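Anyone opening a protein record will find just a pair of labelled lines. The record below illustrates this layout.
***
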Amino acid sequence: MYLKLAVLLAILSFHGQLTMASDPDPIQDFCVPNPKFDSLRPARFGTLQCKNVTEVTTDDFVFSGMKVAGNFSETGVAIIPVNPSLFPGLNTLGMSFVRADLKAGSVNPPHFHPRATEIAYVLRGSVYSGFVDSTNRVFARVLEEGEVMVYPRGLLHFQMNVGKKPATIFGSFNSQNPGTQKIPSAIFGSGIDEELLEKAFGLSPKQIEVMRRRFDPKSTVM
């Protein structure tokens, strides 16, 4: 009995470590990935070979790709996610960031980041912004230029440009690989069984087909 209890406690302890773990603390000043040894793929951020310190330059810690907006989607949103795959100097530092530009009236649809809390700073414009907690309570308001909002890790959040001019938001994450799950695409663009969607949302097959065409990740970039 005591042996079973010990094994159970060990399993629970190990599971707790896995579920509570975030980006590990660095064990050196920095680790700029060496492209000679590995590709900069997000799934392998934690296993990238470092450059020799003598080969690291100031340019490894400077990123210039956020000066202007990215490519706008048909929905009027342009997203530039910045992680070690674009900015090698971020590797092992436990952070990443994003630039989001929204045309007047456009929406960054409900989504969440499973591995990070986000802080969003409104550089320009007026943005209706908020998140929903696990009791379905909404915390939202219009943010004006210079204001900041935090979205707790794993909670659904959203933005909508409610002004008459374009809006720009800079977001920062406490993980170099926060992950992004967009709710509309996850539901209607992932291939979930049609019967389940009909029963869950009370939609007809025709309505589901319309939603699938709209949120197919292969044809929609957000």
